[in-house]
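Title: Comparing notes on inverse folding

I've been comparing how different people in this forum approach sequence design from structure. To keep things fair, I'm posting one structure and asking everyone to reply with a full sequence. Here's the target:
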């Protein structure tokens, strides 16, 4: 034994000894779990702002929605009447908010429509959209204040 061995304190009898680095490992594990939760949330929850009047009176321009999507695998089939965000087939970097009017599982497509047919550009103009174009289903309106709340929103719903 070297000279330092005699100066090390010995643990009290019956006191459990923690392994060295346990705090650092615990913090690293917690950080990894938190990072994983953030990644899953960023893939499952998205924010979308309504830009036009095609969904009036259900949604107005400036309404802000939370859209839920599956983090892995193909998107789930939405039901007729669900409000969904879809990639615009004409402008791929643009997102549209529409209501599902019909589902065709045989061809893998959806017919999406706005609640106000006179103000909407939808499947009547550009045809059905593939299921892969669905960004997610709208589940919550978080703004503006006074118009917040969870879905589903029936056609013609208007909360002032």
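Reply #1:
Here's my take.
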């Amino acid at each position: 034994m070297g000279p330092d061995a005699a100066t090390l304190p010995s643990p009290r009898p019956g006191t459990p000894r923690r392994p060295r680095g346990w705090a650092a490992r615990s913090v690293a594990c917690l950080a990894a779990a938190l990072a994983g939760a953030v990644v899953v949330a960023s893939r499952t929850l998205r924010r979308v702002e309504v830009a036009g009047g095609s969904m009036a009176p259900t949604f107005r321009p400036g309404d802000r929605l939370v859209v839920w999507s599956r983090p892995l695998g193909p998107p789930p089939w939405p039901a007729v009447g669900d409000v969904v965000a879809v990639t615009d087939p004409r402008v791929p970097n643009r997102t549209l908010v529409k209501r599902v009017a019909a589902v065709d599982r045989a061809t893998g497509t959806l017919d999406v429509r706005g609640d106000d047919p006179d103000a909407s550009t939808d499947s009547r103009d550009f045809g059905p959209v593939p299921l892969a174009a669905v960004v997610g289903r709208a589940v919550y309106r978080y703004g503006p204040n006074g118009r917040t709340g969870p879905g589903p929103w029936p056609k013609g719903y208007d909360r002032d």
